[in-house]
Amino acid sequence: MQYRKLGKSDVTVSSICLGCMGFGDPEKGQHTWTLREPESREIIKYALDKGITFFDTAMGYQMGTGEMYLGKALNDFARRDEIQLATKFIPRTPEEIEKGISGQQHVSNMLDASLKRLGMDYVDLYILHMWDYNTPIEETLEGLNNAVKAGKVRALGISNCYAYQLAKANAIAEKNGWRKFDSVQNHYNLIFREEEREMVSLCHEDNIAMTPYSALAGGRLSKHPGETSKRLVEDTYAMGKYDASKDADSLIIERVAELAEKYGRTMTEISLAWLLTKVTSPVVGATKIHHIDGAVNATEIELSCEDIAYLEELYVPHKLVGVMAQKSLWVPNK
User: Exposed, middle or buried: residue 303 (CB in 10 Å: 0-12, 13-18, 19+)?
Assistant: First the structure.
């Protein structure tokens, strides 16, 4: 396992981040394919044994049960200073706005609730899950800076945002002497490369770590045509992100399979090896032990420039999907 600095922060993370959206009570929340606590603990323990020290969860995963499962397992299996833990919080809700809860209060309330579920005193990385269109960014940034000063957070991240928003936020933070965002967690993989338009260059120039989610496109970059899984069948959210472009994407997936056969590797390993040439630490989900092996093995692969060009050659522009296609989600009616 390789270990890398998280942007300009003093946090060092494993080059694979275990995405923990697959852990939590399947009867609660958005997803029906998540693992219950015993199965979650098994995978978390195996990841630790394989050298993965970076774990990503969120307050919204299965109504907080994801945080609870992860926190309990990490507290049982590892020393706190041996791991790097990230969690995410959502923007203010209309109900909070109606009650007059400020952006600063919102950050504090969400963080304290997450820490309680995790059973921890601090998180290494605290991430705004999506841009908050209903709250002045100054309020959110000040709230996050207060959390850093209080010792409850070591580094700051943002997810699901445009490059101009990240640049704007960090300029405001610098002007006010507040902690800037150290990382960005956006949608980026071999069949969805829209981040390369502006975000990638911004992050490279400003030394902002990229820790993208959907590293394997919900399993699509790890399976041959005809292969399936419980998640592929039941994850309607991922279907909404990828089904419309599946014909164009399938041509790239075929090249992944071709290189995997050529080098005696799995498709997972080839797809992640490509992504590891672009980012600090991709967030890779796992609901089976062999998912961990594939992610770890990818860190040992060095693709040639010709291989990378071959994988990238057939990409065509994609429409924004998921949260980024619903940026008005939190904007009140006018």
Answer: middle
End-to-end, the C-alpha distance of the chain in Å comes to 51
Which residue type does 258 have? E
pLDDT at 231: 63
Instruction: Tell me the pLDDT tens digit for each residue of 24-78.
Output: 989 888 888 889 999 999 999 999 999 999 999 999 898 899 999 999 999 999 9
- At 88 the three-state DSSP class reads strand
Among the listed residues 222, 226, 225, 193, the one whose alpha carbon sits nearest the alpha carbon of residue 210:
193
Task: Please check whether residue 221 is in contact with residue 236, taking contact to mean a CB–CB distance below 8 angstroms.
Answer: no
Q: Which of 99, 83, 89 is nearest to 67 (CA)?
A: 89
Cβ atoms within 10 Å of 334's Cβ, excluding its own:
3
Report pLDDT digits (tens) over 285-295.
999 999 999 99
Paired strand residues for 13: 4
Report, as residue numbers or ranges, the catalytic residues.
Answer: 61
Instruction: Please give the pLDDT value at position 169.
Output: 98
CA-to-CA dists, residue 103 to 166, 216, 242, angstroms: 17, 34, 34
Using a 10 angstrom Cβ sphere, with 0-12 exposed, 13-18 middle and 19 or more buried, the burial of residue 211 is buried
Please report which helix (H) or strand (E) contains residue 327, including its range.
none
What pLDDT shows up at residue 234? 63
Kindly give the parts of the chain with pLDDT less than 50.
328-334
Strands (E), the chain: 3-5, 12-14, 17-19, 54-56, 84-89, 123-128, 153-159, 183-185, 209-210, 283-285
> Is residue 280 within 8 Å of 290, Cβ to Cβ?
no
- Mutual orientation of helices 199-206 and 163-176 as an angle, nearest 10°? 30
Q: Establish how many alpha carbons lie within 13 A of residue 227's alpha carbon, considering only the half-sphere containing its beta carbon.
A: 10
pLDDT of residue 330: 44
Query: In degrees rounded to 5, what are phi and psi of residue 54?
Result: -110, 125
Tokens of 260: 């995997």
